[in-house]
Write a structure and sequence with these properties.
With about 600 residues, this protein is mostly helical. Among the domains are: about 40 residues, no CATH class; about 70 residues, Serine Threonine Protein Phosphatase 5, Tetratricopeptide repeat; about 100 residues, Alpha Horseshoe (Serine Threonine Protein Phosphatase 5, Tetratricopeptide repeat); about 100 residues, Alpha Horseshoe (Serine Threonine Protein Phosphatase 5, Tetratricopeptide repeat), CATH 1.25.40. The chain has 30 helices and 2 strands. It has a two-stranded antiparallel ribbon. Helix 21 packs antiparallel against helix 22 and helix 27 runs antiparallel to helix 28. The longest helix has 21 residues. The protein is elongated, with a radius of gyration of 30 Å. The relative contact order is 0.04.
């Protein structure tokens, strides 16, 4: 019987159906189970021959069109894999992986790279681009937050390098693993990052590989920065940048500048920080690297917030968030929403602040990064506590603390314990606040002003001293941190620091100094649009003016504070939270005065 006759009988039996008659006859199986049964009824040799013939036919039809070749690469790879043509299967799995990476489908890319690594040992050694396979697979794993698997990938890369005696492959493996250990991932270990980097640096210099030398110097900068040694980090970054500029390594220039920004902020070199940030942003845009552009924009939002530029901070965080959603970057979305939450909270919009931080907490689960697993939860806990939901706030803060590890940078641990101490002061649980402060004091001294950590720590300790009626010590803490903030040009937390100083000075009956501090705090808060702290400053000023008999001024301050409280209450997202905010003793004192 002819093929057509056989097909007709299958069609009559309901096993296949005609899909198209032109330009070629094409049939479909009516059910996947029928397809499976027919496929597995073929002899293994016949199946291999069928896959190979199908792959070759498909390849001939799409080979002239590079765009279609990318589209059909996964199918071609699978046919050649099943057909036993390992070399062509490897070629097309790698092509499919690269196409997936270009559209940020990193999980798919990892699956294709996994198949490529399975096939590679069966292909002639010289035909396998080992560095491309391992490096690209590792980067894809990093981008989906699978850092432990990425470490394993680079360890396997180093083993392969040693087996082949390939020193360049070994250098790439050492550098990639050092980078993971030097950055705030779930595998952060700056000391291990430094050790691997020094091995890689010696190897790069031995081989005269200056691009690799520039990269390793950049990693050393990161390792020192995340060891809270920003002053030691900067020279490594500057050496890396000098080599990258000399050789016109534009991608390395962008990476180094991007992270020099944080280092320069940490040591108070703000003009250099801004120049580095803007140049790296231009380079990322020019290169079309949306992943790193997202990181740059979110960091820019962070730095703008610290400098007191709330409008700029919100604009950059929104751009970063939009890009991060486009490329599926959980880290970028989390970081940008976290910063936006700060801005909204400071402006008194608790509804928007809570929404942003809850998004950040949810996205943090996908990022794999300890920092964003911990701190947004703790910051959200502080917001709930400030709105009077003290136990809910405490629960969130304790969840955030549970993510801290011994390898977590001291700056992050210090921030977390300080936030918990402030929360306990709000709860009037001074023994618990004391224990949190003691935990913070066991960490190294933190002077990294590229994060709010030193200011958060000072505020927590100052509030604790004031709650213990040790106003002298509270003034000393506020004065010291204010001087450092002036040096590092940090405006973000100036109103609460001055507010702390004002209240401590009132407790010491130094009313003229207290009034000056509170008036400065008011000017800072109004200039920034910091509404939540402003009503508290105005309430203290009202009480101070009332004490000195200036009742008209006291009434004006108190009415302004009431108006702001009403605005804030209107933006609280739930009736329950609104009630707990309005029930706070300090709020009731203003409204009932």
């Amino acid at each position: 019987m002819s093929v057509i006759g056989q097909l007709s009988r299958l069609e009559s039996a309901g096993l296949v159906s005609l899909k198209a008659a032109h330009p070629e006859v094409e049939y479909l199986f009516r059910h996947a189970l029928v397809h499976e049964a027919v496929y597995h009824s073929l002899l293994k040799h016949d199946r291999k021959q069928l896959h190979l013939a199908t792959g070759e036919t498909l390849e001939r039809s799409v080979l002239p069109d590079a765009g279609r070749l990318d589209e059909f690469a996964p199918l071609l790879a699978q046919h050649f894999y099943e057909g036993g043509d390992d070399y062509r299967a490897l070629v097309y799995f790698l092509r499919a992986a690269m196409a997936a990476v270009r559209v940020y489908a990193n999980a798919e890319a990892v699956a294709y790279y996994d198949r490529a690594l399975e096939i590679a040992p069966r292909v002639a050694a010289g035909a396998v681009p080992w560095q491309e396979v391992y490096s690209s697979r590792g980067r894809a794993l990093e981008l989906i937050g699978q850092y432990e698997r990425a470490v394993g990938n680079y360890e396997a890369m180093e083993d392969e390098a040693r087996a082949q005696g390939d020193r360049e492959l070994e250098l790439a493996a050492l550098t990639a693993r050092a980078t993971l250990y030097a950055t705030p991932t779930s595998v952060l270990d700056p000391e291990k990052g430094k050790a691997l980097s020094h091995r890689a640096l010696a190897l790069a210099r031995e081989r005269g590989n200056r691009p690799a030398e520039a990269k390793v110097l950049w990693v050393l900068m990161l390792a020192h920065y995340f060891s809270a040694k920003a002053d030691e980090a900067a020279p490594f970054g500057e050496q890396s940048l000098a080599i990258a500029r000399e050789l016109n390594l534009r991608e390395q220039m962008a990476f180094t500048l991007n992270d020099l920004t944080h280092t320069y902020v940490a040591i108070g070199a703000h003009e250099r920080a801004r120049a580095a940030e803007e140049e790296s942003r231009r380079l990322w845009r020019d290169q079309g690297n949306l992943t790193m552009l997202t990181d740059n924009l979110a960091s820019g939002a962070d730095h703008a917030y610290t400098a007191g530029e709330l409008d700029t901070s919100l604009r950059l965080s929104e751009e970063a968030y939009g890009l991060a959603r486009t490329i599926g970057s959980a880290w970028g979305q989390c970081y940008s929403r976290w910063i936006a939450g700060y801005v909204h909270w400071e402006r008194g919009d608790s509804g928007q602040a809570i929404a942003c931080l809850e998004d950040a907490v949810a996205l943090a689960r996908l990022s794999g990064l300890v920092i964003v697993q911990s701190l947004p939860r703790i910051d959200l806990g502080l917001i709930y506590a400030e709105l009077g939901a003290l136990e809910r706030g405490l629960g969130l803060a304790q969840e955030g603390l549970a993510f801290l590890q011994p390898s977590t940078p001291p700056v992050i641990q210090g921030w977390a314990w300080a936030a918990l101490a402030r929360l306990h002061v709000l709860r009037q649980d001074l023994p618990a606040a004391s224990r949190a402060i003691e935990q913070r004091r066991r960490l190294p001294q933190i002077d990294d002003f590229s994060t709010p950590a030193p200011i958060m720590i000072a505020l927590a300790e100052g509030e604790f001293h004031l709650a213990q009626n040790d106003a002298e010590q509270a003034v000393a803490v506020a004065t010291e941190i204010q001087a450092k903030m002036e040096r590092y040009r940090i405006r973000a937390f100036m109103p609460p620091v001055l507010y702390l100083a004002g209240r401590a000075l009132i407790a010491l009956h130094r009313d003229d100094e207290a009034r000056a501090a509170l008036l400065e705090a008011r000017a800072e808060a109004e200039g920034r649009g910091s509404r939540f702290i402003l009503w508290q400053i105005l309430a203290e000023l009202a009480d101070l003016e009332s004490e000195r008999g200036a009742q008209t001024q006291a009434l004006a301050y108190r009415q302004q504070a009431r108006d702001i409280i009403a605005e804030i209450a209107a933006r609280v997202p739930t009736a329950e939270l609104r009630s707990s905010f309005l029930a706070r003793p300090s709020v009731r004192a203003v409204l009932g005065a």
